[in-house]
Amino acid sequence: MSSTIIAPPGLTTTRAPFIEQAQQDGQLYIHQPYEQYSDANHDAWRRLYTRMQDRWARYANPRFLQGLDTLQLNPDRVPRLEEVNRFMEPRTGFRAKPVSGYVPAFLFFDSLRKREFPTTITIRDGATLDYLPEPDIFHDIAGHVPMHTDAAFADALVRFGDCAHTAAEHVAEAHDSEEAARRATSIITAMARFFWFTVEFGLMHGPEGRGIKAYGSGLLSSYGELAHSVDSPEVQRYPIQLEWVINQGFEIDRFQPLLFVVNGFEHLFELVGELERWMRHGKLDNVAPGEPALSEADVRSFLEAKRGLD
User: How many structural domains comprise the chain?
Assistant: First the structure.
């Protein structure tokens, strides 16, 4: 009697039965079913990681490179989140927390406040390494998490998470539900833009102010855009100004034509504090309209947080 070996279904982005079932069951926070990663999934990780190493050495900021050393990621296998946390948590308290998909805005920012990073467990199809319809584990672990081992950067993320509670308090002060929704929409837009132009696509001055290095995870997980962000004459690079950032829309499906430069992570921490002060004074209530497009779930997450403060 012959036996048939059934290959694991895999955890490929947009084609993962485990994720589909979790979403159908309403489970946002999940576990990482490591045994379901297919050989193709591990091969995609290997190819993504291998081709980034030279680019990281050239374009990444030194603290990111130190973070890679700290995490001791296996270049050939999709990482186990419990192993990532074993190296990361003792340094900054941050933990990667697996999720089944999109996390509404307030819950995402509040996770940062708790030193938890919502982490996607699927990985993009190896046939299209440069196409990313949504975040995957390579973006989240190889792009974001090395920065979470740095105390100054981690503190800036926590302070940014605190801003979500400040925003909810400010929304709660609105005189009616329509005004609350309008305030929430404007503030979430401002926060999303700030996160995009710093945590996702931020640049910073190199050691001793020489040159430009990347610290944004969207850059550090993109083979093409990482080099483009630093070298291309087509990119406008400006010293970061809060009023520019919160009023600047962005598009997610193209290389970014405009990027902002911080002096360091202490500077980033100060900027988050300034963002929070602006919230308290109502200066984020009327930011310029435009991208990013917000979902109903994003706005509702802040309104529900607001009701909890009433």
Answer: 1
Identify the CATH number of the domain in which residue 141 sits: 1.10.800.10
| CA-based R_g, the chain, Å | 20
Looking at the domain assignment, is residue 96 inside a domain? yes
Q: Is residue 262 part of a domain?
A: yes
pTM exceeds 0.90: yes
Q: What is the pLDDT of residues 259-279, one digit of tens each?
A: 999 999 999 999 999 999 999
- In this prediction, residue 252 carries a pLDDT of 83
- Residue at 62 is within a domain: yes
> Strand 203-205 vs strand 95-99: parallel, antiparallel, or unpaired?
unpaired
Q: What range does the domain containing 268 cover?
A: 17-309
269 lies in some domain: yes
Q: How far is Cα 229 from Cα 257, in angstroms, rounded to an integer?
A: 8
Confidence band of 310 (pLDDT split at 50, 70, 90): low
Q: For residue 104, give both structure tokens.
A: 């509404």
Q: Per-residue pLDDT tens for 82-116? A: 999 999 999 999 999 999 999 999 999 999 999 99
Q: Running DSSP on this structure, what letter comes out for residue 199?
A: I
Q: Using 50, 70 and 90 to split pLDDT, how confident is the model at 2? A: very low
The Cβ of residue 176 has, within 10 Å, a number of other Cβ atoms equal to 8
SS3 per-residue string spanning 62-123: HHHHHHHHHHCCCCCCCCCHHHHHHHHHHHHCCEEEEECCCCCHHHHHHHHHCCEEEEECCE
CA atoms in the 13 A half-sphere facing the CB of 39: 2
- Supply the pLDDT for residue 251: 84
Q: Where are the beta strands (DSSP E) in the chain?
A: 95-99, 116-120, 203-205, 212-214, 236-239, 258-262
